[in-house]
Amino acid sequence: MNNKHDSVSAKEALKLNLRAIRTIYATRKKVLALRLTKFAFAALTPYVGIRLSALLLDELAGARDPKVLTALVLWIIGSAAGITLIQSLLDRWHDGEQAGMYIHIDHIMSGKMASMDYADVEDTETYKLLSVINQSRQGGGWGLHHVTHNLNNLWSSLFSLGGGVALTVTLFTTPVPEGSGLAFLNSPWVTAGVILLFIAVSLAVPAMTAVCDRQRAKVVTRHNLSNRLFSYYGRYGDREETAVDARIYDLGRFCDKYNFDKTNLFSSKGYFAKLNRGKLGFLSTLSAAASVLFTGLVYLYVCVKGWSGAFGVGAVTQYVGAVTMLFAGSFRNILSELSDMKNNAYFLKLVFRFLDIPNRMYQGSLTVEKRRDRDYEIEFKNVSFKYPGADTYALKNVSLKFKVGQRLAVVGRNGSGKTTFIKLLCRLYDPTEGEILLNGIDIRKYDYKDYMGVFSVVFQDFRLFSLPVGENVAGKVDYHRALAESCIRDSGLGDRLDSLEQGLDTFLGKDYETGGIDLSGGEKQKLALARALYKNAPFIILDEPTAALDPVAEAEVYQSFDKIVGDKTAIYISHRLSSCRFCDVVAVFDGGALVQMGSHDDLVADENGQYHKLWHAQAQYYAEEQV
Length: 627
What we know:
By secondary structure, the chain is α/β, with parallel strands linked by helices. It contains 22 helices and 10 strands.
């Protein structure tokens, strides 16, 4: 991936950052206002202490009036206590909101992934883009999360700048007494020169920092790759799924290559080490030196004017603190944040490239009729389909029809088009040619979510979550507990459920609950079936969820499930034929085409057909079912 960060102009960077702020705070405007208040308060309150301390020192060096000193001390104590109390309340609120903000930003990204067309979800380019975005965030903190950091610091620095100017302006306007040998300091040219010198030295530090930051941003791809390698190989032994192989094959030695390689990006002989010993190290040292030089110049100028009689010792304290905060703090931070925002703009482009992926699939508007008699009919009419970017058809001229209540087996060798058939049926994709009808109406005309509600699907690579058993079955937090339990028992997991002390509230896995349980492969499949039953959709589809089982065990699962399907339509997808004997219709796919369709007995009897060959090639696994 090419990282041309310098190609992002200042104008484009400004637009990207403003859009990012609108995106993040679109639904959190109150949070934005309260957050800005917090940072404004934090930026301005240090000047209160500086001013009060200056007044106290002036009084100590002057009249020493006990009443004035007492009042000043009380003001200092009271203001410090009040500021601390308010700041603590604001900090507590901010910390909670900041944690929520990270979740909010993650929700923006995950929400886009959940709402985009499935064709884009499966597109490898989408995952590459999302991977770069996530790695950039995890490795360097770049992207949308970085915008909140920039905004907080920039807002704080701008308010701090205002406070610093208010307390500093009299440093340059208060004249040295006439007759003093230093009266030349009253010259506007000298004053302008001192201000320009302060600005120049202040500019040098963020300029050098910006060079270092740009250099690090330019190698983000290598940075991300090194992080990924370390995250994978550095924790290879921690993962349960790799624990056996790691021991049998002593893979720790294999991982050492990536974990202890001194030429790694972050290691002693790596790229960053070379940079830090060279240009970046020199600039960092020079930056530190410039900071010290600036502090020295501030003390020199303020103390010289104070020594000449322009102001008292209290004002010296005020001006040194205010000028340092103004130029070395606020002014420098503003420049650093602006530079950082420009660097981050490249990564914001990636984020918005992802968020701007359009939804091309027509969503429809018709409501799917909720029929009490469940009288639904699905028809494929000359359906052909090519995956995006593919040259060949995954399905070609498929035509078939089936009704609710039927049992349909879709069989064929791996790659014959079975899963593609289901993806089109569920409208994860739309046909390239032809149409799919539900009760005589093109499914593209139905409201997309409404149509999806017609199907319950258990895919081969189904996923369960590290959540309680009941929530896994229902797919929601608030659910019908009696129905969930009934579905679990119907799926054949009743005895397992009875053995659990916490019943439906038992967590799966130990990711979030030490008392969680680990299910066997067969138990997971049954729980996935229970989830399909809970949805109570008129169509239930099993897309080879039992492929990991042996043929006989798979046949038993299908037969057991067939008994509890009831009046629903059950579609069984498999490259094995264990489900075919009890199905009303068998559809045989080969090379993306529907080559046969009929009952099991009729298809077996056709000795020239594809099904006959498949059945007899597998008959040894179903000895008790041979015809």
